[in-house]
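Appendix B. One record, verbatim.
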Amino acid sequence: MQVSNLIEACLIVGGASYIGSLLWLLRGLYRREECALPSLKQPSLSIIVAARNEEQTIAGCLEALCQQDYEGEWEVLVVDDRSTDGTEHIVNAWASEWPRLHLVRAPDEVALRCPKKSALAQGIAVARGEILLFTDADCRPPRNWARSMADHFHDDVGLVAGHAHTEAGHALMQRVLSAENAAVGGLAAGSFAQGVPLSCTGRNLAYRKAVYDEVDGFQRIGHLLGGDDVYFMRLVAAGGRWKMVFNRRAVVSSLPSSAQWRRIVHQKMRHAAKGGHYRGPALLLAALVYAFHVGLGAGLVAELGGIHLEWLWPIWAARWFVDALLLRHMARLHPLAWGAYLPLLEVLYIPYVVFLAPAGRLGLFSWKVLIWTSVFYF
């Protein structure tokens, strides 16, 4: 088979899989949202925030949390994950004035290979709430966040996910990453609506403490770096007992992404590494999508070299169209100037998938404290 034929095969098969998947997600996004009626019995809530060296952001998060309008019993637990800056001092100052807030110290020796999961597990161990809510130190949940999340916990619901929008910032890459974050949010919202959850974020997540206990907490996923959200969601889904729903009513905002290229690259490798743990049909789809991006990259190189490919431009144009529909819909949840950054996103996503996804799977990234991982870590 000629190289050009192989490239076109990747484009056709992979492109059909990608575009079909996006249309499936859009079908879920355009479904009418189910009405979440307020619970007659308001469950007790524990809001848990893991914080490591967050002296620049934690006060803003606490300011947003103290304005929650939930009328039931609730508490806020900030787990200081061995911070070396002023995080502990700031939280203690807030706690002295706000009785709902409690500082929890993570152990010096992490119980799990993933430090964040170890910190969260420490907070969950002392949490008194029936429902556990999670967000990050750089996030700013809206006033109705806790109430709207609790409203979705009907008797058969074990986990509720929501969208977390990264603010655009001033730098070009921060704005591009904000648009990319919206697309990832579409993956979560659309797949939840279709009854096959594929993604979620720990910046806007809640589940029953009983569910956490049923799946043995993070023990089965503690060796994986990251994934305290997605990997845990899969554990709940595998159990098959609890319904999982998506809350579109409260979008959590987080501070802009770093504008430093090194941090961006390592963050994207870490995110892409999660795809290596897919199983079954999801793994097959991931492989086809990867082949599609390889085909796009190789096709563009071939065109620059004077080799014409019949299917390159029609398939890439179709991809632009469905991506634009996804971002346009997600802009309804949070204002987003997605159109200006779509072209750059479409180009950057090719090397991201082709090169950074395998690098992430090999563990060639650093995370938070610059601890290098290896393929054996997974």
